[in-house]
Structures are given as C-alpha cells and as structure tokens.
C-alpha cells in the first residue's frame, strides 16, 4: 500500500511558504476565495519562475501537495520536501507511485498542485501534458487555474529564474471548472478532448489575469 503524503506536513509547508514569500517578495493574491473550501481540488499553475510552487503553496487557502520533478529532491531538500507533503515524480517514465499518491490526495479530499506545462518555460499554458486531464477525469475533482505573474521581464534579478527581490508577484486564482464531459470516460480520445477543454480554460484565465493585473 502506497503511503499518502502528510496533510499536516503540507500545512507546515504552507506556513513556511507564506513567511518566505512575503519576506522576499510582495505577493498580491486575487481570487483565493474561489478555491472550494472542502473536497478534492486540482490547482493548475503556470510555470515561469522557480518560486511558482512555493508561492502558490504559501498563499493558497488550503494545504497543497505539488507534483514536483524528482531532480528537485536533492540532498537535504529530499527529506524536507517529502516532510512538507510534496510528491516526487519521475517525468521520464510512467511513475505509478507518484500517480497513486496523487490520486490518493484527491480521494482523501485534498488539494493537488500541478504544473500542466511539465517544466518551467514561458508560463503561457501553450503546451499541456495529458497528466492534468487524467487526474481531473479520473478523480472528478474540479480544476482551479492559477496564474503567477512576476516581473521576470524587468532588470534587477539577482538570480536567473527568480523575480527581483521585493518586487510584486501577482497570484490570480480562477473559477473552478470540470475537465470531463460528464460521461466518466477515460479513453485516450476522452482525455485528449479534456486536455483541449482544459487548455482553452487555462489560456482564457491567463489572459484575464494579465488584463486584471496589467502584466
């Protein structure tokens, strides 16, 4: 039996995240009330900065278990990330342990965080992996789109991949939506169709978030 990540650990991670993020940057959080207060939820986060995961973990209204690439679990970060309820995933294979644990989070009514683009890039949701659709259709959990908009296009960054320290970082939560078509089908065709629906929703949310924040 696969051990589920610690919910208590994720709450500790949330407290660490909120202290760290507010200490180093100036988060502005919009729409956090849209995250359902109970029940399984998937947060689909765009990924353009290294701080996207910790930022959302810190400002989300509920403890979140993120699927994080195994390469991040190095040295002392391995027990730390595991201790705060985060999920190690091997992106080069079908990681059945990670899939089982992620579905376990949702089955237990928890919050799963996913970077649907798979890796850090433009952060525009242009290229989605099928994993998000699979978790959403399989669990029936609603997806809440999350746009993290920093200031990576401005000078002043001390470290590549991070917004300038003390700069404003906007985190915009969108309306929850269902990825499936209501049939419960999990065929390749159904997942492809769900991925298309998800992509449209996430792109629309990002456009709205940029308009809202003027980023």
UniProtKB/TrEMBL annotation:
This is Lysophospholipid acyltransferase family protein. It comes from Streptomyces olindensis. Pfam families: Acyltransferase. It comes from the Bacteria. Keywords: Acyltransferase, Transferase. InterPro entries: Plipid/glycerol_acylTrfase. Residues 41-151 form the Phospholipid/glycerol acyltransferase domain. The keyword Acyltransferase applies. The keyword Transferase applies. One of its GO terms (molecular function) is acyltransferase activity.
